[in-house]
Write a structure and sequence with these properties.
By secondary structure, the chain is an alpha+beta fold. It has a single domain, classed as 2-Layer Sandwich (Alpha-D-Glucose-1,6-Bisphosphate, Chain A, domain 4), CATH 3.30.530. Strands 1-7-6-5-4-3-2 form a 7-stranded antiparallel beta sheet.
């Protein structure tokens, strides 16, 4: 039995917008973060480097299952207008080492996909009293709301 098992959580939404407009939204994430998900997002700022430059570091806070979670990480990979990858630092990296945001043209629309890489397995079931099931359900609810909010913001 594996202590750590990779788990990919993915959510996609089609948006009537160009990849460039979605990219611009994320290029200005410091200003857009709380608007993107006003119920959960608290703050986001660049701690080193410039917006969406590989190697730039971030600090953000958001509510997860009713509690503030603080994230520190770095931009690990950038493909302009197509892909943003963040790697998280300890302690978040224990549960989720990275996330990716994919921006894919689809005719005159764009598909935005949020992928969260998580670690699961026997050890995590013991460590997290609420269980991985609750964490996964909360994650899907959160990213679905982010997708719908992004769609609403960009289609206005």
């Amino acid at each position: 039995m594996s202590l750590f098992k990779p788990l990919l959580l993915s959510h996609s939404i089609e948006i009537k917008s160009s990849p460039e407009k979605i990219w611009d939204f994320f290029k200005n994430i410091e200003q857009n973060y709380t608007t993107w998900h006003s119920d959960d997002h608290v703050k986001f700022h660049w701690t080193k480097g410039k917006s969406l430059d590989e190697g730039s570091t971030i600090y953000s806070e958001q509510y997860v299952m009713g509690k503030i979670t603080k994230y520190k990480g770095m931009v690990a990979e950038i493909i302009p207008n197509r892909k943003i990858t963040f790697k998280f630092f300890y302690p978040v990296s224990l549960i989720s080492p990275k996330i990716e945001w994919l921006i894919e043209p689809k005719g005159s629309n764009t598909v935005f996909t949020a992928i969260t890489y998580m670690r699961a397995g026997h050890l995590y079931k013991k460590l997290f009293k609420k269980g991985m099931k609750n964490i996964i359900e909360a994650h899907y609810k959160h990213v679905a709301e982010e997708g719908e909010n992004l769609k609403k913001i960009l289609e206005e």
